[in-house]
Amino acid sequence: NYIFNLKWDTFMHPLNYIFRRISCVSELAQKVQLKEGSISDYLFHLTVIHHVCVHLILGGQSHKRRRTSEPVEIEDRLESLICRVGEKSTSSLESNLEGLAGVLEADLPNYKNKILRILCAVARLLPEKLTVYTTLVGLLNARNYNFGGEFVEAMIRQLKETLKANLYTEALYLVRFLCDLVNCHVIAAPSMVAMFENFVSVTQEEDVPQVRSDWFVYAVLSSLPWVGKELDEKKDVEMDRLLNQIDGYLKRRLKTHVPMLQVWTAEKPHPQEEYLDCLYAQIQKLKKDRWQERHILRPYIAFDSVLCEALQHNLPPFTPPAHMPDCQYPMPRVIFRMFDYTDAPEGPVMPGSHSVERFVIEDNLHNIIKSHWKERKSCAAQLLSYPGKNKIPLNYHIVEVIFGELFQLPCPPHIDVMYTTLLIELCKLQPGSLPQVLAQATEMMYVRLDTMNTICIDRLLNWFSHHLSNFQFRWSWDDWVDCLALDADKPKPKFVKEVLEKCMRLSYHQRIVDIVPPTFSGLIPADPIFFYKYQDEANSALPGYAVAIAVGNAIKNRASNEEILTVLKDVPNPNQEDDDDEGEGFNPLKIEVFLQTLLHLAAKSFSHSFSALAKFHEILKALTDCDEGKLHILRVVYEVWKNHPQMVSVLVDKLIRTQIVDCAAVANWLFSPSMAHEFTRFYVWEILHSTIRKMNKHVQKIQKELEEAKDKLERQQHKKVGSRRNSEDEDGQLEEQIERLQEKVESAQSEQKNLFLVIFQRFIMMLTEHLVRCETGSVDFSTPWYKNCIERLQQIFLMHHVTIQQYMGTLENLLFTAELDHHILAVYQQFCALQL
């Protein structure tokens, strides 16, 4: 049947290849019970083969013309066959596997290396079909013992390479694949146990990060649902000793990092467990249940009579690669829990949080997303066609896994918008059931907003507003009327207000007014109008009013920059005593008059505003040649667009890009007293993180240029072509370029370090003042503002952890010292624990 399902051009190969196919078809025809009507298909393919054979024998020149591309064509066909096995088919998986094993066995003499490479690749890249491929390898090993040995050796080599390359997720899949080969009688159980013992021995190493030991323990525990029963039956004493060693490690392991990674601070209704603790509890329950699980597809059981006769291989001794300073181990995680069996009242029961079935289902769903995330339609289809979906409440599992990834700290595995589009696609494919589960999940998260991490609230409101925009902004707002009775600083009213603000970005103000009930009017965003204080003649007494009118006319009449600067000379300077030379020094009124007038004339759209800033870039640079000027230009942007946070965000972004203001100025402005009332607003942190990312990209860009220049110089020094003089001249030029770039890198890194110092210093000052004020007044310090502020500090550490780690010594010496309040210092210690 497997051969019958192939396109007839599969058989368009050289004569010897054709004869192997004929024998393969004949063998399969005898083994597989033919379905009704398949005899004609069989005779048809034999006729085609006969026709092709005659054509190849007699074709002569045609055969020669095809010969050059023939090996490539066959290799591509082999890759397609291997990658597609296990997909939906009219034939059973077992018959497809047996057919493919026959095809591959026939091709081993000529294409062994290609087949080895493909099988090693799918073991690493297609974990959702792990047991399908282990069964295939088992069948090949039963037919060709030497190939089985070569495959095991290739897998061990690949495992070592992935570990050295810091590809720990792929390494995990390879370990699990090797484990399942024990079930297929390819690898002997004692050698697998020995490998596990070497993994667990890492926990005894000294002066290594805890995350290194965590990964090797996780690799062992996460493989046991597949192979635990087989190993326990054959090596029960060794397995007990292994689990006891793991138990001892978990008890002495530090968990300082856990509070920073939890989505919810409350343990009810679902405890947010650390990932190793949760997995160990699941394995303990699995062991108690005699290693019985019901959700792993095990196609090799159908071939037990064949596989049990096969000779097994011993794994070569495997020593985990030594720890190196450049090793980047996966960060620890906290397991996200949102549902239990009480939340899915109808249909199959959801497995408990400590049942291994919960781990297996979630792991498989994560793997499907990882393999298909770039194509939302196929990803949604694959999730909904999950094997065994009738035995579990699949929609609840899918929604929980997707939100678990979206809320994963420090950052989701994929870009945020992917999860939005995936959930939309799932709602389209399952309109009768999945939207209800999604609405239930949204309601549950709204109810628990008080204890939800602020970073996750940001992601939730981004997802929710984007999702609503795809469904005409329809929502049962009356169900959330309870938020109207709460203080505006509480999480629920803040969340609703920010969601409506974000929805307005995706629509327009009047649309939001129309869709929200009148009772929510207090939370509806203000009309995004421009505030121009020189527009009304009633304000003609304001200082600078006459100059503002003159500047507006000059801009309309296309005056030159010099002419406009001449007009601005008439602006009185409130800081006159500090201004020694006319036209020089910081004049806040001059900035207000020019920038308010310019932005007022360009207020029609983003594009108009961008063009205005670009056209008068020279004037703006002249007006902001000092730190006070840069701060004041940001204040003016906020004053005129305070009802339009999106415009403020994009204009600040443009000012940084055009180098009118620098990153440190933006940080100082956001933490300034004038912005204190906006401190907990979503857009403020959107601006700050965008600013940090720009600084980081700037440093990375210069570092890349420096590395490229160094590589070019090294290549030139190895070349012996051309005259010595020309070579020396070029080397000299490159060396000068490298020196300049080195200076730019050092300057940029200094600026980057200063930015983080400014941000952390402001956080410490604000939090310390709050704690002292509360202690003096004998009031509880844990206010909504404090929760927001301390979690924003955590967010800075988490979102930019790679960069911040470069400056840990400076931060510890200057800011996060032992004298600091322990509430603030705890955040820094949690961050340090992530890589200990």
From TrEMBL:
Gene Ontology cellular component terms for the protein in this record: cytoplasm; nuclear cap binding complex; nucleus
Keyword vocabulary terms for this entry: Coiled coil, Cytoplasm, mRNA capping, mRNA processing, mRNA splicing, mRNA transport, Nonsense-mediated mRNA decay, Nucleus, RNA-mediated gene silencing, Translation regulation, Transport
GO biological process: 7-methylguanosine mRNA capping; mRNA export from nucleus; nuclear-transcribed mRNA catabolic process, nonsense-mediated decay; regulation of mRNA processing; regulation of translation; regulatory ncRNA-mediated gene silencing; RNA splicing
GO molecular function: mRNA binding; RNA cap binding
Location in the cell: Cytoplasm; Nucleus
Residue numbers spanned by region Disordered: 711-736
Highest taxon of source: Eukaryota
Ranges for domain MIF4G: 75-287
InterPro entries: ARM-type_fold, CBP80, MIF4G-like_typ-1, MIF4G-like_typ-2, MIF4G-like_typ-3
UniProt key word RNA-binding: no
Major site of localization recorded for this protein: cytoplasm
Family as reported in the entry's similarity comment: Belongs to the NCBP1 family.
Record's protein name: MIF4G domain-containing protein
Species in which this protein is naturally found: Oncorhynchus mykiss (Rainbow trout)
